[in-house]
């Protein structure tokens, strides 16, 4: 499983190199943009900055917009979102996937 923030953006880069490295990136994906929408509603902001602020996660200024900084922030956000998802009765991967499908248009809006 892959956890990412705005996963289509990252997956595009990974998929461009599939032929070169001989691997396929077809793992299940949980996108923290969509998880944020499930927990906080679609009308809220779902950028990584908005999500981490809402969850009380601090990204050091020198780490912001770096691969490791954004990765750590996304991982922290994912871990903090899990109890909120569970509180909504979403306890399995299938439960979460079914719920986030209702929010897929957010990714189009972010990338469109």
From TrEMBL:
Alphabetical UniProt keywords: Exonuclease, Hydrolase, Nuclease
Superkingdom of source: Bacteria
BP GO annotations: DNA metabolic process
Annotated Exonuclease domain residues: 2-78
Cross-referenced InterPro entries: Ribonucl_H (IPR013520), RNaseH-like_sf (IPR012337), RNaseH_sf (IPR036397)
Protein name per its UniProtKB record: Exonuclease
GO MF entries: exonuclease activity; nucleic acid binding
Pfam families according to UniProt: RNase_T (PF00929)
Source species of the chain: Rhodobacter maris
């Amino acid at each position: 499983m892959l956890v990412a923030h705005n996963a289509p953006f990252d997956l595009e880069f990974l998929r461009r190199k599939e032929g070169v490295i001989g691997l396929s990136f077809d793992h299940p994906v949980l996108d923290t943009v969509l998880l944020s929408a499930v927990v906080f509603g679609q009308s809220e902001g779902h950028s990584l900055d908005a999500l981490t602020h809402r969850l009380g996660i601090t990204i050091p200024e020198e780490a912001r917009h770096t691969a490791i900084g954004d990765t750590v922030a996304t991982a922290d956000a994912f871990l903090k979102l899990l109890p909120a998802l569970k509180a909504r009765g979403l306890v399995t991967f299938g439960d979460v996937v079914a719920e986030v499908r209702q929010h897929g248009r957010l990714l189009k809006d972010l990338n469109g």
